[in-house]
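Everyone, describe these C-alpha cells:
***
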Amino acid sequence: MVNASEIGLRPLRAAFHSEASHENGLEFRWRGAIEESSTAFILEWMEQRLSQLNAGALNKKRILRVAIELLQNLHHHAKAPKEDVSFEIVSNDKSHWWIRTENSVSPAQEKYLQETLLELNAIDADQLRTIQRNKIAHQERSEHGGGGVGLNEMIRKSLGQMFVEFINCNRNQKNVIFITKLALK
C-alpha cells in the first residue's frame, strides 16, 4: 500500500539523514522567509561553492535549476510561519550534494502536491520532457506566472533522485519536506 505522506525513493531520506549527521556534513543552511534578495544570495553562494568543488558544467546547471525551483516554491507557496522555512545543502564527500527544503503547506497544497507528484513519478523522463515543452509552448501559466512545470523540472533535473514527505508539526500545521540528491561530477 502506498503511503500518501511519502512520495519518491524512501532510501533517499535515510541516506540524507546519515550524511547530514556527519561532522561538516552541513554545507549551508537558510532559515526564514525566502525573498528575491535571499534567493540571489543563496544562488550566488551555491555558484561559488560549486566552482570551488570543480563541479561538472552540466551537473552545476542541474543543481542550480533544481535549487531555483525549490527556492521559487519556498518564495511563492510557503505558508506562515515563514520563520519555519528552511533550505539546506548537505554533503560529506565530493561526489554529490543533497538539497533539503521544508515549509508549511495548506491542506489544498498538500493534496495538489501528492496528486501531481504521484502522477509525474509514474511517467518516464522522455514523456516528462514532452509534457514540460507542451506546457511552455501553449503558454500555460500558474497563479504565480510560471508554467506549472517546477515539479516536473525537479524530477527531471535530479534524475528522479527526489523524496517528498508531509509531516504533522502540530494540530494546525503540516509541513512538506523535499529532499533531492544531485551529482557534482
